[in-house]
From TrEMBL:
One of its GO terms (molecular function) is DNA binding. It holds the Pfam family Resolvase. PROSITE patterns: RECOMBINASES_1, RECOMBINASES_2, RECOMBINASES_3. It comes from the Bacteria. The active site is at 16 (o-(5'-phospho-dna)-serine intermediate). GO terms for biological process: DNA integration. The keyword Iron-sulfur does not apply. Residues 8-141 form the Resolvase/invertase-type recombinase catalytic domain. This is DNA invertase Pin-like site-specific DNA recombinase. It comes from Haloactinopolyspora alba.
Amino acid sequence: MDPSPTGHLIGYARVSTRDQNLDRQTDALEAAGCSRIFTDKASGKLASRPELDKALDYLRPGDTLVVPSLDRLARSLKHLVLQVDDLRQREVGFKSLHESIDTTTPSGRLTFHVFAALAEFVRELIVEGTHEGLAAARERGRTGGRPSVITEDKLLAAQRLLSEGKSMTAVAKAVGVSRPTLYRHLESLDLPEVDAPGALTPAE
């Protein structure tokens, strides 16, 4: 179901180092009407961004997540596609100010459908790659990350649920791990990356 803009605008901003200033991004988010803004000072390459996790948990159906630009939200094109489709499945809108993306408008809703189709493709890549990734990890003497956090059985269960079209949020909850943990372990298996001309490059 496509979200309707009935809730709050929730902003998220990020800079890569503590020396950089968030004011330009937060000013833009305030001007866009955000009632609450979460901020991180962390590299886009890091899986752990605590304030982004808080922002995603804070969102409710009808809310809209607003970011200054796409590279503030995601580490890679694959990560971006899964994040935006996760919002769609939660009936949360998405706006990126720099790229003028707004999924809460009638014309902008087409963007969500494009992301949904891409997300299905990404999930298929994950399903195809999980067994190969686990086998390669075993050959290197590890089982896909930190066994005390997520086991091989949980990864396989996550694979099955993803193949059924479940969102990353729903899958993480079902296997009993956090969403960032699931992302991190799936990416640690060296699964195929979605690539395309002009693909998102993580900003530092």
